[in-house]
Please model this.
Amino acid sequence: MQRTKILHLLASETPMPQVLAKGWVRTRRDAKDFSFIELNDGSCLRNIQVIASDTLPNYEDIKKITTGSAIEVTGKMVESQGQGQKFEIIAENLVLLGGAGEDFPLQKKRHSDEFLRSIAHLRPRSNKFGAAFRIRSEMAWAVHDFFHGRGFRYVHTPIITASDCEGAGEMFKVTTLNLETPPMKDGKVDFSQDFFGKAANLTVSGQLEGEMFALALGDIYTFGPTFRAENSNTRRHAAEFWMIEPEMAFCDLQGDMQLAEDFVRHLVRHALEHCAEDLALFNQFVNPGLLDTLKNIEGNEFVRLPYREAIEIMQNSGKKFEFPVFFGCDMQSEHEQFLTEEHFKRPVIVFDYPEQIKAFYMRMNEDGETVAAMDVLVPGIGELIGGSQREERMDRLTARMEKMGLNPDDYGWYLDSRRYGSVPHAGFGLGFERLLMLVTGIPNIRDVSPFPRVPGWAEF
Model:
């Protein structure tokens, strides 16, 4: 007999004469002639109740089964005589697949997030994290569904790269050299003797390579891991995270902003439609008001606001900010929260930023001081998306690179796209973990990553 997932058993409209269920014991309690087992297989939030009678030949062994143990149950699924569930399984055969000791750390009580991070290999079995990672899976599918439905091609960009997309220098080096006695030349490490014959790093973005494919295939997107060696211990930053980066040929900033808004609203709508049970858990126990926030995002058009006007709104608000607000400042979380949660009370797309606070590849506007960049800010998170129209003009692009201390010779392959059939194009990056923080209401990025990588922590 084939196993049926508990999700499908609970969705059934009628009892079943014979079912096979497998999963992990959440709780077990004994009555006079029965043992009641709450069984969960991870397919959904809810458990199914298993009733094991003392007439079973191995009943004495069943009474010794502990929380966390894995079992296999064959029996009849009948309408429940108790409250709280529609169906239950009357066990006809129950097999212990894998026992769990009395020291199994996930008992029937609430555990702190800090404790659960220390047992990240077990925390998916808890209600909260089982729900979080089911939602993560569903959101990954929604990403591909969105772009596939719009004719985008999925491109895998390198994880190891010799280019620094952001020009920030906060990158993890990849090397096979002996770090205790590396080869030296002119007082510096000689990377010509390294595996790749030059210095290499883990990527911070697939954008530059993505642009190359957009200028061949039209509309593409990447979805993969990226890495930042930034010593930041905030709740929104991690050293390893996943990025979704679409790139579109023949697209300007207006088209870029429209796609970003459509994308976010699609993802939120998908979560509301397909993750209702798990979202209800987060709305009740993690972030009251979460569902209202998500419905607000899904149901309303985003505000579009030039950076200069955003600064003026904050300067004239009468609100005292910890970080000063002035034209040329890089907006902080408190600024983003004010715009989205207090002033507009919905998502805001801020665009046309001062060129000195944005990356070299962003297209210079005609005013000579701003670039065609945009950020999507959402309530509860702040910046969710950063994007821009790319600089397609060779002379402008090389001038920006030199101004920012980048050697154009190191980006010859990238500049070729401006030499051979350059066209206006645009794109953006969405941090997948920040999306999950938005959708679940979980306030710390460490708790939406299966095995988080942050400064001082690379366990499991």
